């Protein structure tokens, strides 16, 4: 993908989070990476979404340094950069404060696979991180947010679990492309909303069986996937 095409895709991903009701004010950001060029493109900090253009997407390196001095990159850039360095298969990252996913993050409650809607997109329980320590918060908070996500994913494939809840903060999601990351962010909010209601009705609701989880996730994402054209 050309630089211009990637900038446009990042702009569209940011605007799509607003259209889907996942972002209010400027509480969110989307980015994508050109791994061949070693560049991240991310929303600028604090700019209203209605004022954004593709030229406003800030080019940065993989160490989280802005290469374009015209606008400051999102304040969450360092978290995105940590995830790109750690999760080699991902091509885009989105952070929102979408209502139900953020409720679950603030409750420090992982989202179990309570039904097949969840299982179609997330292969098991959507994890929640531990709390950051006082030292992690005061020393390099944004970078350490990325590090605690990576720590949480020890033994978890980020391509089969493209979302995490940062305790007390909110969700981060990713995908192979900006479009896929947007879709995952939208579905995460929906399954978080469903889980909140299910657990309100039945606090002891159990996850679906592994057999049913496998059936739904692997029909869309497995090597022998059968869903779609």
First-to-last CA distance: 24 Å
* SSE ordering: HEEEHEHHHEEHH
CATH topology assignment: L-fuculose-1-phosphate Aldolase
Shape: globular
CATH architecture: 3-Layer(aba) Sandwich
Q: For the largest sheet, list the strands in their spatial order.
A: 3-2-1-4-6-5
SS-derived structural category: alpha+beta
Percent in helix: 40-55%
Main β sheet profile: 6 strands, antiparallel
Mind telling me the CATH superfamily name? Class II aldolase/adducin N-terminal domain
Strand elements, count: 6
Give the total of domains.
1
- Overall pLDDT: 94
Task: Please describe the topology of this protein.
Elements: H1 3-19, E1 28-34, E2 39-42, E3 58-61, H2 77-86, E4 92-96, H3 99-106, H4 116-119, H5 134-152, E5 163-166, E6 170-175, H6 178-201, H7 210-221
Antiparallel strand pairs: 1-2, 1-4, 2-3, 4-6, 5-6
Characterization of this structure:
With 229 residues, this protein is of the alpha+beta class. It has a single domain, classed as Class II aldolase/adducin N-terminal domain (L-fuculose-1-phosphate Aldolase, 3-Layer(aba) Sandwich), CATH 3.40.225. The protein is 41% helix and 13% strand. It contains seven helices and six strands; from the N terminus they run αβββαβαααββαα. A six-stranded antiparallel beta sheet has the order 3-2-1-4-6-5, sandwiched between helices. α1 packs parallel to α6 (178-201), α2 (77-86) runs parallel beside α5 (134-152) and α3 (99-106) crosses α6.
């Amino acid at each position: 993908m050309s630089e211009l095409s990637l900038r446009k895709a990042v702009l569209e991903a940011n605007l799509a989070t607003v259209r889907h009701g996942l972002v209010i004010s400027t509480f969110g950001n989307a980015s994508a990476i050109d791994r061949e060029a070693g560049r991240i493109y991310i929303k600028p900090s604090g700019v209203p979404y209605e004022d954004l253009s593709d030229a406003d997407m800030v080019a940065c390196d993989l160490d989280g340094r802005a290469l374009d001095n015209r606008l400051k990159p999102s304040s969450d850039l360092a978290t995105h950069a940590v995830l790109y360095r750690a999760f080699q298969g991902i091509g885009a990252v989105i952070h929102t404060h979408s209502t139900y996913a953020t409720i679950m993050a603030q409750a420090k409650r992982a989202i179990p696979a309570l039904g097949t809607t969840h299982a179609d997109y997330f292969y098991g329980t959507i994890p929640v991180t531990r709390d950051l320590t006082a030292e992690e918060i005061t020393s390099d908070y944004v970078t350490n947010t990325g590090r605690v996500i990576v720590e949480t994913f020890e033994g978890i494939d980020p391509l089969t679990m493209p979302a995490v809840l940062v305790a007390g903060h909110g969700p981060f999601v990713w995908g192979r492309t900006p479009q896929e990351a947007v879709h995952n962010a939208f579905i995460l909010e929906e399954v978080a909303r469903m889980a909140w209601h299910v657990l309100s009705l039945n606090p002891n609701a159990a996850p679906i069986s592994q057999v049913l989880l496998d059936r739904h996730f692997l029909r869309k994402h497995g090597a022998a996937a059968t869903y779609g054209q």
